[in-house]
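The records we work with from here on pair a chain with its fold. The integers have meaning only within a learned vocabulary of local backbone shapes. A complete example follows; check for yourself that the lines match position by position.

:::
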Amino acid sequence: MEGYYGAPNESMSRIQSLLAAPAGRCASWLQDFISAGAQTVVIRFGGPDQTGQLERCARDVLPLVHDA
């Protein structure tokens, strides 16, 4: 992630939320924001294969997230 953002992970974690985890944990983490009232969530992928990560998120993570 440091290569993508050009800053240490510690610095980035102070200004935005970061998570790298298996699909189920990612879904639970996103669900926490929705349950807290978030109406819009912006997801960015910290790697060079943006299309592949988007496809994986759509296939493996988003189906596990439910509106509260």
